[in-house]
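--- STAGE predict ---
source: upstream dedup step, 1 unique chain passed
mode: sequence only
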Amino acid sequence: QGAVWYGRAAEQARLDYAPETAVLHYCQSLNLLPVSSETAAQRVSLNEGLGQMLRWLAQFEDATDAYLAMASAAQSLPDKPAVVRAHLGLFLCYFLQDDLMQALKAAQEADRVATRAKLTDLQLITQVAVGWVLVLVGDQYTAVQIAKTLYNNLKEGAAPLARAYMQALLGHIARESGH
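--- STAGE serialize ---
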């Protein structure tokens, strides 16, 4: 019961943009929650929120640990979108620390899972993440190919966020190309 209460308090703190308080409550909830297959879905949710709050606080190593725990718990569930979100969280942590090779690996793993699970909107986001890093590591040709494929395959029914990320990638490529 305590784990549930702390989880709700953490979510409320997150919604109130109080990351320090949210981190405290997420940790309390995770500490009280038994590690079992019955609590895996709760652990996914709690670690996702914890990772986000730690990222907001620029505590990237701890956020990475939270996203790794999220990915581990999500692997035990049939929740492929959570696995993808965990790897995207890792991508952001590595990217924000300028560890581009680890960011690329995390983005590619997210893309692999999204592609296999046919998660179209998440796949668009994961491909943008891969493309973004490729531009920064100097592989503009591959990034342009990804962007062209995304642009050509983008359906009107795609989520607005996925479309916005794709357009941001195209702008990033153009800026880095000097256009």
